[in-house]
Amino acid sequence: MSSPNGTGETRTVLAVDIGGTKFAAAAVTADGGMPVRAEVPLSAFASADAALAEVVGRVTARVDRDGIEGVGIGSAGPLDSVKGSVSPVNIPGWRDFPLADAVSRMLPGRPVRLAGDGQCMALGEWWRGLAEHTPSRAVLGMVVSTGVGGGLVLDGTPYLGPTGNAGHIGHIAVDPGGEPCPCGAAGCVETVASGPNMVRWARANGWSGEDAKALAADARLGHPVALRAFRRAADALATAILTAAALFDLDHVVVGGGVAAAGTVLFDPLRRAVTGSAGLGFLRRVRVDPTSLGRDAGLLGAAALVLPQDSPC
Ligand SMILES: [Zn+2]
Hints:
By secondary structure, the protein is of the alpha/beta class.
């Protein structure tokens, strides 16, 4: 086992993942082990505060609390990393909620770091997903789900930005003047490629299914409107990916989230669109892959915020 602190003990931190519908927490060791993990659905609690206390309590009750050296938190946004507060769109009870302070009160005296869920996903993939295979210096993680989020890891460091909001790739405009986006702009990637917006477009064009999962199933069966919905989303995602790749000389893009779980009906047209639209040579080397860690990526990335690792580069 690793002993990065030189004491012969394995360093352990608490990772917390705040999603729009569920909260998760885990004890994470310096080598990426996750000896204790808990998850709760937000809907089972009277308040988000109660769900937070429960999920953290379930983990800390099963580990040596004194051995927890730090706390990393990934949260649905928007957030303010300077104040340590969050305002997740799907949790109306939390507006400018002081999340870092709330968790710190449960485990006083440890460093606490907060980042966006997309950023934690990218960092988790860089640390425990990609690094196992091909070391990457510039990684974009994308979460394509009810929204489209993301995060960047550049030269082995998560790039969070001055306010903690870097990586909002879902709000790059791919259709200026297009559909209005809840963010206040129009034609954002999210207006085309999020699960609900893909379903909305497909239904407006004659498809009669219920949700993104059904849309993926029909695309796999060759339903023409479902296939077009995925190609349209793939084109929007590819435009955003190539924009980011041109700015950051990306090695690798890792895509997770419910829509990404559709598999080849998304990734085949996505890879074709990225390769087909890449102009400059360095853009043609960008690899686009589905997540290899699934939902654990966010917890591992949150842990990595407070857990120094050896760079794989
Ligand atoms: Zn937007």
